[in-house]
Amino acid sequence: MAHYTSEAEQIAARVEEFVRTVVAPYEADPRCGSHGPSDELGAELRGKAKAVGLLVPHIRKDGSHFSHADTALILRKSGISPLGPIACHVMAPDEGNMYLLRKVGSDEIKQRFLAPLASGDARSAFFMTEPAEDNGAGSDPSLMQTTCQRDGNHWVINGRKAFITGADGAKVGIIMAKSVEADSEGGACMFLVDLPDPSIQIERVLETIDSSMPGGHAVITINDLRVPANQMLGEAGEGFKYAQVRLAPARLTHCMRWLGVADRAQEIATDYACKRTAFGKPLVDHEGVGFMLAQNKIDLKACELMIDWCASVLDTGEIGTTESSMAKTFVAETLFQIADRCVQVMGGTGVTGDTIVEQFFREIRAFRIYDGPTEVHKWSLAKKIKRDWRKAQP
């Protein structure tokens, strides 16, 4: 079990109080739409968090990060409401993008692109996934169709992207493209761009099952986008390496946030089961209902331990790709079972928007696919099992 610092515990307690008392009442706000909370609402919530010193609470005032283990506790408390991570500015994709820029960005990139993100004055988008109809990059990044080519002191980017979270309304973009250069600059590259840009057009914002992320998920066309060479993130040809720097921790912070919502869903379902009576006694006293809540309690602890274990690996300095795949797979699948039981315990009420339980069910169903479907992570783990077996042979 993780041992959290007292500093992190104090901040986590403040985050929880803030999310429960200030943020959660906004869940019924009409500015929460099918494509996520409006930018107006997001700015209002971030303003409230900033006023009490809880904007990006996992980052100290001197710019240093809490450990991944401490971050797990803080982000879990932010997730008690789906709006909590937006208020505290630790929502995807911004949290992962800020982490990447701190790790890889030059001083110039940090000043120009990271600063407005860290201050909460801007949202961002990560342009990697591509449309299935183009047979583009998804779980298999080697299929990337978006290209970049040098032209003097610029790179010219062309292609299409899909499921780009938050692109509508974002001010900062990180774009992945495959270089067509034959020399050392060939391979995957990452670029920082200001948004909006006339060369980056939103074809449409998809109608998806989830609704927690501002801007929704868009299909994008990039047509002759010219990017100065000094806006490349890191080195040419190393884009996939930088993607792993971002994706492994980002998978885990997703798990942290959704575990917080699961805590809240369990609270709501428990309250319902203890107050609602049927056949002469409270629902919780019926074994079929009580056992579901008991299993949820067991599974919540198992998810906590899995997250803490993966965080401890990341805190050693390892990229932790295998561990984050294991954590993401286990937590997403387990939280889905928890959400399903909460809905079932609450019966008809559980499938209405009267509580956050229904939204949590939708959000966690999508998370079983986002950041890599469960089946892809298991396939990757199976390949590692085979490699390890071969190495162990005499």
TrEMBL record:
Keyword Iron: no
UniProtKB keywords: FAD, Flavoprotein, Oxidoreductase
Highest taxon, organism lineage: Bacteria
Annotated Acyl-CoA dehydrogenase/oxidase C-terminal domain residues: 237-384
Cofactor field: FAD
Family as reported in the entry's similarity comment: Belongs to the acyl-CoA dehydrogenase family.
Protein name in the entry: Acyl-CoA dehydrogenase
Species this chain originates from: Altererythrobacter rubellus
